[in-house]
UniProtKB/TrEMBL annotation:
InterPro entries, alphabetized: RepSA, RepSA_streptomyces
Organism superkingdom: Bacteria
Pfam families: RepSA
Protein name (Swiss-Prot/TrEMBL): Replication initiation protein
Organism phylogeny: Bacteria, Bacillati, Actinomycetota, Actinomycetes, Kitasatosporales
Length: 462
């Protein structure tokens, strides 16, 4: 059973297995374990023990072993960011991404980001792919080029008007080089900012710094594009004020110049029957200033953070692709991959022998894209690792308090802890998977209800 399972009525085989699991004498403990993972769809199984002793007396303060757990295993969350693989862990990842991006916009002293960062020039920019051939779309005025007014959910949107003339090779090569194009863009952007400030790049490093947080998104046509929060800081990032000449207008102008500069291009060399191709960003470029909450505009700090978080858990499946690597083309039939997406994947396979260093077939499930879906510059705000560590420390302190131990999670010179853990598998049986999805849905519903209640309470107080 896959990770998109819900609490809907299962098939007879799954229902029978769920009844078997629920009838086990240790079901309540299994349920507790799954609840602690957030209803993870593919938990990691561990076997082992941990032992805490008093260094002075040798007395055992705490002993835990998986020997008495259901199946002799402890289940922990898989941590997969993809919503199609594990909705529960993806929600956690999206939440962390939201707080990371938002901290870089509003400031958050608990994350060591001062609130003065809100005063730094910042914009929300979208860099897109060029055209590889006309596709079915929904223009602001008039019908599509095919003469049809397509509904918003039309399956043909984003597909070529003429697949035989669409440049599929260029499309997947662009996706494959998108990360390299982004690096060239950020390098050129620093030059453009320095030029507009009337200083050298060396002087720029001493007075200002470019910070960003970005996320990748697949358009319906299967081309990757980037949404990015781009900010001008002082030389040490979010902790220092930008120079007097820094402004949203200067940053916007520099982004436009950097995006379409000749430096921000790459060439895929000719190989076999494939001609050389120049890869560059598309002409469509959207740059909008980010304003504080309540400033009378929709593009607020909250909205930007939520938008980035939303796409941080998605991948090529939004364009009809798969969420895992492809072993052979025959898999596309089993998964009913749409024709346009199939052609993109096939282009990856055909190009792979001619550009072996690009590993196009390895990344065919991502339509050639091989970068990280969400990235940030070093001084943008906090890190995902720091957010996860804070959560782990909080849970560890809770656990130690429940055991009657010192809640301090730091090194304790008076105790000695021994531990031994072994990987013992992963996943659920069909019945367990359905029950875990039910638990995950209940957790999500409870959180949404609590969030709405808090929002309503805050509205009543305002």
């Amino acid at each position: 059973m896959n990770a998109t399972a819900t609490a809907a009525v299962p098939c007879p085989v799954t229902l029978a297995d769920a009844l078997r699991v629920a009838g086990q004498p240790d079901y309540r403990r299994w349920e507790q374990q799954v609840h602690r993972t957030g209803g993870c769809a593919d938990p990691i199984h561990l076997s082992g023990f941990t032992l805490t002793k008093d260094r002075t007396t040798g007395a055992t303060l705490h002993h835990y072993s998986t020997r008495d757990e259901p199946g002799g295993r402890l289940r922990i969350a898989c941590g997969n960011r993809r919503a199609t693989r594990c909705p529960s862990c993806a929600r956690t990842y999206a939440g962390d991404t939201f707080h990371l991006i938002r901290a870089g916009l509003t400031g958050d002293p608990t994350k060591n980001v001062p609130i003065t960062v809100r005063e730094h020039p910042r914009v929300f920019a979208t860099l897109t792919a060029p055209s590889f051939g006309p596709v079915h779309n929904r223009p602001d005025t008039g019908p599509c080029r095919c003469g049809t007014h397509h509904p918003a959910d039309a399956a043909t949107l984003g597909t070529p008007l003429n697949p035989d003339t669409y440049d599929y090779a260029a499309a997947v090569l662009f996706n494959n080089h998108a990360g390299d194009l982004w690096r060239r863009f950020t390098n050129r952007l620093r030059r453009e900012v320095a030029a507009r400030a009337g200083i050298t790049q060396r002087e720029l490093a001493d007075t200002a710094r470019l910070s960003f947080g970005k996320v990748a998104e697949f358009q319906k046509r299967g081309a990757i594009h980037f949404h990015a929060v781009i900010r001008l800081d002082g030389p040490d990032g979010h902790t220092t004020a930008p120079p007097h000449w820094a402004s949203v207008a200067l940053l916007t102008d520099a982004i436009r110049a950097a995006t379409h500069h000749s430096y921000t291009t790459l060439t895929a060399p000719a190989s076999g029957p494939h001609p050389a191709r120049t890869l560059r960003w598309g002409q469509q470029l959207d740059i909008r200033p980010i304003t504080a909450l309540g400033a009378g505009t929709q593009l607020t700090e909250q909205a930007v953070a939520a938008y980035v978080a939303k796409y941080s858990t998605k991948a090529a499946e939004t364009a009809g692709g798969l969420d895992r690597r492809i072993g052979e083309i025959a898999e596309l039939d089993r998964h009913a991959v749409p024709d346009h997406t199939r052609r993109l994947i096939t282009a990856c396979k055909d190009l792979d022998p001619h550009y072996p260093e690009r590993r196009l077939w390895d990344w065919a499930h991502m339509l050639g894209f091989r970068g990280h879906f969400s990235t940030k510059s070093r001084a943008y705000s906090t890190t995902l690792g720091a957010l996860r560590q804070t959560r782990a420390d909080y849970r560890a302190a809770q656990e130690r308090t429940a055991l009657g131990l010192d809640p301090d999670t730091g090194p304790d010179p008076t105790t000695l802890t021994l531990a031994d853990w072994t990987y013992a598998g992963h996943g659920h049986t069909p019945g367990e998977s359905w029950l875990a999805a039910t638990i995950a849905n209940a957790i999500h519903t409870n959180r949404e209800t609590a969030r709405e209640a808090l929002h309503d309470a805050q509205g009543d107080l305002s």
